[in-house]
Specification:
0% strand, 68% helix, 101 residues, single chain
Length: 101
């Protein structure tokens, strides 16, 4: 049988993190069946990276929107928007209270 070897993917390591034994025990207690501590750590790192990427994109969109609003003058003042939301909330609460009677 002839075996073919592809170029192996190069990997890198994440530095070891020292934690209190209680934290390690908590992590081990929540591992899924067959999941290793290394898999959990990798998944957590990936989720953290994704969360930060999404947050950075959200902030960038907000800053672009602010610049556009300032440049065009097309925006709603915060107090006007909040007043409108407060009125909607009060109307919804009144409607809910009416239904409960």
């Amino acid at each position: 049988m002839q075996m073919r070897y592809n170029d192996p993917m190069k990997t890198a390591t994440i530095p070891a993190v020292r934690v209190e034994p209680e934290l390690r025990a908590e992590v081990e207690a929540v591992l899924a069946d067959g999941e290793t501590l290394s898999q959990f750590v990798e998944a957590s790192i990936r989720a953290g990276v994704e969360r930060r990427r999404v947050q950075a994109e959200f902030i960038a969109r907000g800053l672009r929107a602010r610049e556009t609003a300032l440049r065009t003058g097309d925006y709603v003042d915060a107090h006007v928007a909040l007043d409108g939301l407060q009125r909607k909330l009060e109307a919804a609460r009144a409607q809910f209270a009416k239904k409960r009677r």
